[in-house]
Design goal:
The chain is mainly alpha-helical. The protein has 7 helices and no strands. The longest helix has 39 residues. It is elongated and about 110 Å long.
Length: 196
Amino acid sequence: MDPASQDINLNSPNKGLVVDQSDSLSDVPVEGAVGNSANPLPPGLTEEEAEELRTELTKVEEEINTLRQVLSAKERHATDLKRKLGLSPLNELRQNLTKSWQDVQTSNAYLSASATLDDITHSEAYKKTQETLSQAGQKTSAALTTVGTAITRRLGDMSNYSIRHSISMPAMRNSATFKSFEDKMGNLKIDVTPQV
């Protein structure tokens, strides 16, 4: 397959296929092209200079196409070599991440921040703050345990009533917990009800 006749447009559905150049559009005038009758030559540019520029542009575009074809062939060859070596895109990503992390760990900024953090953890202020937070955590844990015990005890008191009593509600209404709740709800009802 002649590389010069391959369609290398990356968006083309015919990418990599041989293109018939007998249907070339090189003779068709392009809108905005230099020397087009619809668009006259820019001021200070002669027809000879425009023709030279067109020729040079054509050569440059051919070189670009050739370089694209060479690059495409090299990329395919590299992909084949990677496949033969068992290198997958995931392995490459993993290697890149590992190398990047190693670069970060050896960077001056990371080493400086690490040293600063080390200094902070050995400072007196850090140790005092750590002790204070530890004590606060212990006190909070003890308070939550006490609240949990109280709630469990209250629920236990309420569960001592037989199912028959709890269904009939009078026993529940006579409990201290229910009365306290009822008083609070009554007060809330009075506060919320609009005065007429």
